[in-house]
Structures are given as structure tokens and as C-alpha cells.
Design goal:
Length: 251
Amino acid sequence: MQLRVLGCSGAEFPGHHPSAFLIDDSLLLDAGTIGAVLTEEEQLRIRDILVTHPHLDHIRGIPLLADNVILKGLPEGLNLISTCEIIAAIRAHLLNGVIWPDFTKIPSAENPVLSCTDILPEKEFRLGAFTVTAFKVNHTVPAVAYRITKNATTLLYTGDTGPTDRIWEMAGDVSALLVEVSFPDAMEELALITGHLTPFLLTKELAKLGRLPPRILITHLKPQYFEQIREQLEAAVPGAELLQDGRVYNL
Ligand SMILES: [Zn+2]
Ligand SMILES: [Zn+2]
């Protein structure tokens, strides 16, 4: 499984893009960054978009991607996948015909460029070569993590979350954990209020696991505190890898 980091930042600055990960060129995991880093050809290879929650830094690439796809008249279109409340929020507040055209009805309601698929948490489903299950996590809005398996490789992506429990029951056998750490330890109070983790809070989460995954990949850092968080993580979770925008990881 190849994980290409389109964006792994908890903010936006040159070289730091909001959350989006492209798996094996066609499955997009969150959609905070698309057109800023992918060529037209690469954008047109995207088929399915798994969304963890409706915050702007995880969905803002979707409307402009739909616009680029419709120009090419691709018959397959795009498939937006998440739980019904997350899909409903995106439709109500982003693709609502005001903020952006409602691409779930364009060019026609019967055959739109953007189809939406509601999924249920805890219920496994197939996406081509992938097996996927969503699990609820703890954020300020409805939010899920995704467990994605292809062949012998399993990736668990937390999305944005504060301290949570259920996903750690599903993480015992994963090949790689892609987990958020947004703030340094000194900002724990803000992290808890906003549904995020610090290096110390991550150690408390990982203590819920029987064994640590072979790879722990860290995402969603606030670039303003990058060095502090990096130092604290190095001490708290030795071996954890801080993802970098633009890099490709073979899992
Ligand atoms: Zn969020
Ligand atoms: Zn976020």
C-alpha cells in the first residue's frame, strides 16, 4: 500500500497543506489538499474519497476537484464516502448551491459528477481492492477513523480526535497507525477542548493498545509548534515518524 501525503498539517502555510492522503493513486483519505499539489492527470485518477469529518481543512478540495472532473466529462465520476451525518453536513454547508454548485446534481441528479455513499460505523465494506471500516472517534463534530486493508497491509487513520477508546480495540494488528498530534504538551487544555492530541495525550492513548503498531505515523501538527512537538514526540514515542508533505510512504 502506497501512502502519498498531499497534506499533513494542522494549518496552512507554504509547504504545509491541510490533511489529504492518496492511497495507491485512486483512494483519497480526506480532501483538505488536492489541486494545489496534484496534476490534472493525477486528479482524474481519484475515484473514491473517504472523509473523516466535515471540518473545512479535511473537505475543502472536494468542490474544486469536482469542477475539474466535470470539465473532462468522466463517466465514472467521484464517490464521496462517509457516515450519513458527515455527508449531510458537507451537502448542507459546502455543496449547497450557494458556497459552490451542488455537484451531486450536476450535470444531472441521475448521473452526477459527485455521488455520495452513506456508510455505517463498524460495518466493513469493499472499495475495489480495499476493505474499509469506519469507527467513531472523539472530535467536536461527528468524526470517524478509518481502518483500511489491502492484501496483508492494514492502515488505521484516526482523522482528528481527542482521547478516545473504540479505535484502539481495532488497532492491535495494524501495519501502520496514522494518528493526529496537533498541539505541544503545554497546550493540553486547548487540545482537549478542540478534540485533538498532544504528545503526552498520545502516549496515554497508545497505552490502551496491547502492542504498538510497527509504524506510527504522525499527522496534523500545527507548524507553528513543529519543533516543540517533534522534541516531545521523540521523547514520548520513540520511533514515531512525523509525516512530511509531498512524501510517499510504502506501508
Ligand atoms: Zn477537525
Ligand atoms: Zn483538522
